[in-house]
Write a structure and sequence with these properties.
The protein has one helix and four strands; from the N terminus they run ββαββ. It is of the alpha+beta class. It starts with a strand and ends with a strand.
């Protein structure tokens, strides 16, 4: 399974509609998420968890 993009609509710190596109180029198939502390990198991971499993982690190891 390859993810082409994820669309966040008012998800945690992401307000409004935000689209994050991932590389689908077979020669350059890596997408790097880079940013300072508290800018939303973990929130992107939480969005994937929510989409796939219907839950997020609010504290290390604890489900919401």
């Amino acid at each position: 399974m390859k993810f082409e993009k994820i669309v966040l609509k008012n998800f945690m710190r992401y307000k409004g509609e935000n689209t994050i596109e991932f590389s689908c180029n077979p020669d350059k198939n890596v997408t790097v998420v880079l940013g300072d502390n508290t800018v939303g990198k973990t929130t992107i991971a939480q969005a994937f968890r929510f989409c796939l499993y219907g839950t997020i982690l609010v504290e290390k190891g604890k489900k919401a």
